[in-house]
Amino acid sequence: MAGFKAAFVNESIKLLKKKKIIAAAVLSIFAVLIGQIAVTAIKHGFGLRVVGSTEFPLVVLSGFTYTILPLFAIFVAIDMFNGEFSSNTMKITLARPVSRFGVFSAKVLNLALFIAANLLFVMIIALLAGFIFNPSSASLSGIVSVVLSYAATFFPVFVFALLVVLLSNIIRGGLAVFFLSIMVYIGFNFIGIVFSNYSSFLMTSMFDWYTLWISETANVFKIFRQILILFGCGIMLFTAGYYLFDRKDV
Amino acid sequence: MKLSKKAVTALSFTIGACVFISTAFADMALGSGYDQLKGSIKNTAAQMEKGLNNYTIETLITLKDNGQTMVQTSTLEKIDNEKQASERSTTTQQTNGETRTNYSYTDQKFSVWKSGEEDKYYVMEYPVDSSRENWNRFDNPFNQSGAAEIEKIVDALVGGLKDYVQVEERPEGGRAYSGSLSEAQVPAAVNAVSSFGIKQLISDQSRMERDSKLPQMESDIFVKKVSGTAVENNAGLLEKMTGDVTLSGIDKSGAQHDITLNVVLKLSDIGNTQVAMPDLTGANIEKVSQSGGFSSKHVGTYQNNIVIEKDGEFVKIGERILEITSVENKKVTGKYYETVKPGFEAEYPNAYNFSFEYTPDNSNPMSFFTYTNAQGEQENGQIHPNDLGMLYLDLNVEIMDEHSYRSNVDIQYFNGEFNRVFEE
User: Fold this and answer.
1) What is the ipTM of this complex?
2) Where is the signal peptide (chain B) (predicted)?
3) Quick one: CA dihedral B5, B8, B12, B13, positive or negative?
4) Interface residue B12 vs chain A (CB under 8 A)
């Protein structure tokens, strides 16, 4: 797999050179700051303690997973596929001595890394903000549950990103994929709320499944079922995406 | 054997799809504990409205501050759907230690109530022909208009918390539900809204009761714990539900308070509940009249001035006279006329002059009398007894539909209040 490693490094460097990474980082910091300002304002204005120091990252997470994170996952996924096709750099990538499967998995793995890194980044800032502003209520078990929550959130967001990868391999235009992804995302969330019976089929309804992981009485069977759903859905989308990528004419 | 690339792709796609679809279907079929609990609650409410002949509901609500009971209300309600009767007694222990009791009995014909402070029963008898729907029956809240929408909203708010409701099959049949949320799991929005709500509730309560002992919480208020249980019997009815909410905060003096609201609901004696009217023989009874509150003491003349403002002064231009000539068998008869002083006819052209027969029905707010106005048109009116020696007259009432009406307030210079004219 020497070829894969090279392709992976290649993709990572391309990703790091993008301005979007900086934008994602800046927006993440903003999200944490706004959250902290809101919490402090409520605390001093109404005397309510909305969050303790270790719950603050969880509050940030609940907002972040539904907004900035999927949005940037969509951006990055579109850049990796549609962007390269439209700027004709895909030829260069594919001309290297790596199989198409190698290129595809390198790209998907980088997408995964981006999501994980973004989550890690937000978690660290939010934890720090929590400790600085509400130092009284810190606890080790709280930190463990924060780490667990951020780790668990990675999976449904990654599966959603795989769906975007599939879309970007079906449709050529990057803008069309972007809007379609947003529509799908909003649609899934809407269906999940209005027809909550069918929410089992939607990965977006699992964006907040971290609450199951940190529950006092963990609902093991439910977590297990959701892991299987995400796993099955992930494999399906990955394979379908790869199949289309493999057959694509450059 | 080496599989072709196509075969591997197809195979892995199929495996993925199989795992995904079968688990998702299983997950959907299993539903969440929350959905099952909701089903049980709906079933129980429907049965309580219709289906169960009689039953007893006990409610106990306790508010504790750091483990010490502050307020406690217990209610015992017996409902008989067959006899269409209900009995209800309430005991409330207030923060200042006072205890209040209330008792009431209602059926098709009678309403009896008694409060703990006085040893006296108030009795109201309804006419046989009046259809009394409101004998304190249990109304299924899920059948009320807008309930479906509220349910959807609650479902959306509960969202990811649905799976916190754990379900256990009981060996004797039925299910046991339980769930608890600690500080970290209560969503921030729910936390903020409920903390704020309870804070307001406590400050309202202490404003109403002067010697309230409830702590005034000032800062660091948050929901510490929420928990609940429910037990369903083998007939699918919820027999017992409990709920606890603990709120933590710091008061003015800096002391830490944990305020716990505990609610227990019990459904019992299904089919064995006896609802009986209290024995009133020899008891101190006050009969409450109900012919719209009218009695022979209301017979007399009532007057209301027609006043206008002219050249910066109030000028009385005439009088409205309402004469109640008799109150017999719940029928009120009388006449109404308006006199305008000479010279002011142009200011008040359409003076009323009619006599009426009015049969007020206390259980039906939509009872009117009809009369003819100056233009010869039919209109509706209503009379209510007001304070001592006062009547309230409503004219030209517009009936919207069978449940609502609108008073027309555009009658000139008319406030509807009539004062008794006493001859001295």
Assistant:
1) 0.88
2) 1-26
3) positive
4) yes
